UniProtKB/TrEMBL annotation:
Organism (species): Williamsia marianensis
Domain of life the protein comes from: Bacteria
Domain Acyl-CoA thioesterase-like N-terminal HotDog: 33-122
Protein name, entry field: Thioesterase family protein
Residues passing through the membrane, by range: none
Domain Acyl-CoA thioesterase-like C-terminal: 160-278
Length: 282
């Protein structure tokens, strides 16, 4: 059996021929793409974005093929259930085919249930910008320093299994909870695929890569994401991606978690926001 990889995860098998604006695919999710026993939310968004682009191209009129420059610029996902690491079916509908912006719906089904629904905006991402506000990420090096915590060697790695296919290093001072301390709900880290340079789909996955930042408030346990919206601002340059996950409003039932992702040149490649449940143990 071949080793799991991001490239193999994104291989879609067409199970229905495109008919009008609809097509269906299947994909196999390896257990390494899990948080605890369930599939990682960012992985499901990455798969949905890939299926949206594949379906958009497959259903394009023969006289108007889809441009190679297109990407999933915005993905708004509702998690209706938590898929297991196994085969899934992806149902794709092209809702609008526009000159600059198109809209695609993707549902992920498993065992006869619709577990994930995403609306994907397809367009051409930016390359340059007029303005970019500084972030705390800009002040940290473009690649991991000596004083980092590698996820695969940390307690986080016991529940976050993606380090089998990704290199993930967390800024040591971010993890106050590992020292028995409380701190602001902010984590900073670096990530890259093990077998290739980062691409747009990997950048989307990084919009949900952090462990729940409320762990720094000593709130531990499963914090399921209800809704996640991710913006792909531009394609990443080769090298490490820098990621900051943070929250500004932590209630007793819910918290928001924002991700900002910079590439090795310091440009913003992804911004995301999710609404998640406070762990039951908290």
């Amino acid at each position: 059996m071949s080793e799991p990889s991001l490239a193999r995860l994104n291989i879609l098998q067409e199970i229905t021929a495109p008919g009008g604006d609809r097509v269906e695919y299947s994909a196999q999710i390896d257990p390494v793409f899990t948080i605890g026993p369930k599939v990682h939310g960012g992985t499901l968004q990455m798969l949905s974005a890939n299926a949206a682009l594949a379906g958009f191209r497959a259903t394009a009129p023969s006289d108007k093929p889809a441009s190679d420059d297109l990407a999933a610029m915005a993905i708004s996902t509702n998690y209706l259930g938590a898929p297991d690491p196994a085969e899934i079916t992806l149902h794709v509908w092209v809702r609008k085919r526009g000159r600059r912006v198109s809209l695609v719906d993707v549902e992920i089904h498993q065992n006869g249930r619709n577990l994930v629904h995403s609306t994907v905006t397809v367009g051409t991402p930016d390359v340059d910008n007029h303005y970019s506000a500084p972030t705390p990420l800009s002040a940290i090096p473009a690649s991991p320093t000596e004083n980092v915590i590698w996820v695969e060697k940390s307690p986080v790695g016991e529940v976050m299994h993606l380090s089998a296919v990704l290199d993930i290093a967390i800024e040591e001072r971010s993890l106050a909870f590992t020292r028995g301390e409380k701190a602001d709900p902010v984590f900073r880290m670096w990530a890259r695929p093990k077998e290739a340079d980062p691409d747009a789909l990997f950048a989307i996955l990084c919009g949900d890569l952090s462990a729940p930042v409320v762990m720094n408030l000593n709130l531990f346990g499963w914090a399921p994401t209800m809704q996640l919206t991710t913006y792909l601002r531009r394609r990443p340059a080769p090298g490490w991606l820098r990621i900051q996950a943070s929250s500004t409003e932590v209630g007793h039932g819910w918290f928001e978690e924002d991700h900002v992702v910079l590439d090795s040149t310091g440009k913003v490649v992804v911004q995301s926001r999710q609404l998640a449940m406070i762990p039951a143990a908290g």
